[in-house]
Amino acid sequence: MTETGAEHPDAPLWHPGSPDLLVHGDNLAVMRRLPDASMRLIYLDPPFNTGRPQQRRTTSHVREAEPGDATAWRGFGGQSYIRTVEALTSYDDRFADYWAFLAPRLEQAWRLLDERGTLYLHLDYREAHYAKVALDALFGRDCFLNEIIWAYDYGAKSRRRWPTKHDTILVYVKNPKAYFFDSKEVDREPYMAPGLVTAEKAVRGKLPTDVWWHTIVTTTGREKTGYPTQKPLGILRRIVQASTAEGDWVLDPFAGSGTTAEAARLLGRRVIAIDESEAALAVMQRRLGLDVTRA
């Protein structure tokens, strides 16, 4: 992993002419080194406080060298294969006091947003309702823009309750009278009942609502990086399209696999991606081709 030299811990990390930044460090400390009102979009995808470690294994399969190997499994055409775990990426998603961890980062996000800026906070059912109350107090209830439901249908399904197959993304703006939102730039999606609209509308597609049906990054998907909890590019692309213009700055303090940064760069935006995980930084450096700044 290529890293640039560390600066004084209190020195500013960003100025208007800065290149895109991939920062290795504690995101709270890094955010405190960024100037007020410098970001147009901040997307936070913090650990969900699931109470358990999150892991993703990267595996390979080779044909069995010797018949009768106990570790082999039988695949297509009766051929035997041996599965090998090449890498195991994990992080601990357990917090004694989750809100003592998250609240100061939300406060910094509010400070860093410019007057036209938007915050997207991505959580699941465990903390989303507490987050709504906290963000109402921090931003003001009139700054609440949307509750987006990202719905998917993949993975195990419980038989003891309704299976949980959605995440919640809370959207707040810095100034409800001045925020940036460009629905014309958002990728459209197919109508669920195209026969009920004109042929022209059916071809054009419809604007997304606040319920987004989008598959997760599957274990065999082309986007897969091997990083746990990786989010799909389509979700972040939509967020960046709607809430920024070309050249605007985007901040992701929990950058993980780098999906926000990739979406921003593909759309001509500028980006700061922060993570303290060596595994995450290695994934992002391969994905983005950026040097790592150690904060």
The total strand number stands at 13
Structural class by SSE content = alpha/beta
Q: Termini distance?
A: 15 Å
Helix content: 10-25%
Output the strand order for the largest sheet: 1-13-2-12-11-3-7-9-8-10
What value does the average pLDDT take?
A: 85
Descriptive report:
With 295 residues, the protein is α/β, with parallel strands linked by helices. It has helices at 27-31, 98-112, 128-139, 199-204, 233-243, 259-266, 278-288, and strands spanning 3-4, 21-24, 39-44, 52-63, 72-74, 80-93, 113-123, 144-151, 166-173, 211-213, 249-252, 270-275, 292-294. The strands form two sheets. A ten-stranded mixed β-sheet has the order 1-13-2-12-11-3-7-9-8-10, sandwiched between helices. Helix 2 crosses helix 3. The longest helix has 15 residues, at 98-112. The radius of gyration is 21 Å and the shape is globular.
Break the fold down into its secondary structure elements and pairings.
Blueprint: E1 3-4, E2 21-24, H1 27-31, E3 39-44, E4 52-63, E5 72-74, E6 80-93, H2 98-112, E7 113-123, H3 128-139, E8 144-151, E9 166-173, H4 199-204, E10 211-213, H5 233-243, E11 249-252, H6 259-266, E12 270-275, H7 278-288, E13 292-294
Parallel strand pairs: 1-13, 2-12, 2-13, 3-7, 3-11, 8-10, 11-12
Antiparallel strand pairs: 4-6, 5-6, 7-9, 8-9
